[in-house]
Amino acid sequence: MATLNLKDFSTLVSDQVTAIQGRAAALVDFTVGSLMLAITQSNASVAQWLQQLILNLLATTRAATCSGADLDSWMADFGFTRLSAVQASGQVAFARFTPGNAALIPLGAIVATMDGSQQYNVIADSNNPAFNATLRGYLLPAGTAALTVPVLASTAGAAGNALAGTVGVIVGSIAGVDTVSNAAAFANGQDPETDAAFRARFVQWVSSLSKATKSAIGYALASMQQGVTYTLTENQDYNGNTLYGFFYAVVDDGSGNPPASFLSAAASAIDAVRPFTSRFAVFPPQVVGANVALALTTDPSGNHNDVVQQVSAALQKYIAGLKLGQLLPYTQLVALAYGASPLVTNVSGVLLNGASADLAANQKQVIRPGTITVN
Known about the structure:
Elements: H1 9-23, H2 35-60, H3 68-76, E1 89-95, E2 103-106, E3 110-113, E4 119-122, E5 131-132, E6 137-140, E7 146-153, E8 167-170, E9 179-181, H4 195-208, H5 214-222, E10 229-236, E11 242-252, H6 260-271, E12 279-283, E13 286-298, H7 304-320, H8 330-340, E14 344-352, E15 365-374
Parallel strand pairs: 11-12, 13-15
Antiparallel strand pairs: 1-7, 1-9, 2-6, 3-4, 3-8, 4-7, 5-6, 10-11, 13-14
């Protein structure tokens, strides 16, 4: 957008006074309370209103400057839509103090975080041996103290990414079940696609319209859902041997361990835009575990255990967000520890997979949290 010659209220009034006085044969009264000053100030107010209308119009008619619903409307002219929010999912363990009788955990049973801000519903998993389609739930046999089942956030968005150990409330009651907990964090919830990402994907979409290009394949994969990362390698097989006319994609949904259904969907997306007569394959990423150990010294005014939990959560979140082939810098661990809480006064004994060096990943690998030990 060209640079606009905008004027504030005082400048508009001053310009009018200068123009009128320059064309008047005698001195004009512009003192406070005078009729001419009131007229110029009124004109300035109207001019500012018109100026703001013009700015609003310019901002909403360009994809580079509009936002939110205006950007959605602009993109809709091309049949291009924003990726929606994604519901967080994970595993929770239902347990009881006295496992004497069988119990049923019904589909749709609701659990929540300790503070009640997020709720999750029990969903079906036919691969779980305890799932009973007839009873529409998971059967907890007599003599079994606990059972782990999948849940899905009631509301889509990143807020549903609960930390480990924070889902601990059963909403209502389940006969024969006393407690619920989540041993691992939920990490796959996504907010709606941001304006910046929406614009970037639109540019990629325009580049993909010719089809049968690397950009077209990349756009097809990126449009499957939010959080998708991928690498494309051409004229080589998965083992690195030269194979002309063949390419492979390593695709991750953000979890590091995408399900078979996701890989199948990725293959379909690629097949729709791949070059004619070419061959390809889709693979999941190889997970490289990042085992972190460090010791903290904290300010005596705070609770040391609380700070340890904050640092652990920060490390988990950062490492879980790394993309395919992205390096985990050794020094970043120290920065994350200091940034997690102002009560951290010293970080020592930092080890990453038992060494004091960066952890690298190639185009087939993604780094994910292993054992995080913070003392």
